[in-house]
């Protein structure tokens, strides 16, 4: 765990959650739960940033992933992340505790004339409210990069941009990425950017071949792995959220996949929050954690809805508790 990593969070009035508390968070966190219980909402809440403009751009980019709006989204649309919208003023509370034993407590407020972020507690020297007009527009572009990977994100233009800006000219990072990708493409020799018809694409050269191949032809699974690895490297020393991490990954690849993914996160000091429904994915996560010897850094967090009150609670399992549940066949994925 690094000082930038979260150890607990509280969310009030954010999307699915009236009041959600999660404690005993560690570096590798599997988020489990039934459909529509708020797993994706939790990942979106973790896009929080104490800079108001960055926070708004993160959330609005997440909205754009759902084909919301057009090329420009007004800041007032932050309201779609609020559970209970009041007629005049609506608030969301974020409270984060960090491994460095610091805390941050913020209130995001939206009304007809203002979007503001107020620091309630923390170690900031400057605690003035940050404000922005709700009519301000955020121009969505294909190269917007946020530490959140939705389950359907594949070979978009932002992937080329990420590689160009953060990997291509850094020899150490490039070698690290190629080494990680060799788990699924053993003959991989190099990754470059090509411009067929003037449009940049990623291409791969392989050992014992004089030709290059577009990355996109390697299939959705390879594309997802490429994105996972590249974004872990890009967002080093912070956190990365991945929705439905198992999608597109064949079960026979889970052992290699988890091993290299977790190792890459360790090398880059990245805290991972990952959702899944897949029992095999959970079992191979358990196996990879044991092989890496990082049991103290693994958690499973199950979101459960109270069928009477319809509020959502979080239950955190240590690695030993997760391992025991898997061994005896206890269901930890939520649902009724």
TrEMBL record:
Pfam families: AAA_21 (PF13304), AAA_23 (PF13476). GO terms for biological process: double-strand break repair. GO terms for molecular function: ATP binding; ATP hydrolysis activity. It comes from the Bacteria. Residues 158-278 form the ATPase AAA-type core domain. Residues 8-48 form the Rad50/SbcC-type AAA domain. This is Uncharacterized protein. It comes from Fulvivirga imtechensis AK7.
């Amino acid at each position: 765990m690094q000082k930038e990593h979260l150890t607990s969070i509280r969310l009030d009035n954010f999307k699915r959650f009236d009041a959600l508390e999660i404690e005993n968070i560690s570096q590798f966190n599997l988020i489990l739960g039934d459909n529509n219980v708020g797993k994706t909402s939790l990942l979106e809440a973790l896009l929080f940033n104490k800079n108001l403009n960055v926070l708004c751009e993160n959330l609005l980019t997440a909205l754009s992933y759902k084909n919301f709006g057009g090329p420009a989204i007004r800041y007032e649309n932050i309201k779609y992340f609020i559970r209970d919208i009041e007629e005049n003023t609506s608030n969301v509370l974020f409270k984060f505790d960090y491994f460095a034993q610091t805390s941050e407590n913020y209130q995001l407020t939206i009304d007809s004339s203002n979007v503001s972020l107020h620091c309630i507690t923390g170690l900031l020297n400057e605690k003035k409210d940050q404000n922005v007009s709700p009519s301000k527009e955020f121009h969505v572009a294909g190269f917007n990069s946020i530490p959140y990977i939705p389950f359907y994100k594949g070979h978009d233009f932002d992937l080329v941009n990420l590689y160009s800006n953060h990997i291509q000219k850094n020899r150490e990072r490039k070698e690290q990425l190629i080494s990680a990708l060799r788990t699924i493409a053993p003959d991989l020799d190099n990754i470059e950017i090509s411009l067929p018809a003037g449009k940049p694409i990623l291409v791969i050269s392989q050992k014992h071949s004089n030709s290059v191949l577009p990355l996109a032809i390697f299939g959705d699974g390879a594309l997802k792995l490429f994105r996972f690895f590249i974004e872990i490297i890009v967002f080093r020393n912070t956190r990365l959220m991945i929705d439905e991490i198992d999608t597109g990954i064949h079960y026979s690849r889970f052992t290699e996949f988890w091993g290299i993914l977790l190792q890459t996160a360790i090398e880059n000091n990245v805290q991972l929050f990952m959702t899944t429904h897949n029992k095999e994915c959970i079992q191979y996560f358990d196996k990879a954690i044991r092989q890496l010897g990082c049991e103290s850094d693994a958690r499973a967090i199950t979101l459960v809805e109270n069928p009477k009150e319809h509020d959502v609670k979080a239950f955190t399992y240590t690695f030993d508790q997760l391992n025991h549940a898997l061994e005896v066949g206890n269901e930890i994925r939520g649902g009724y």
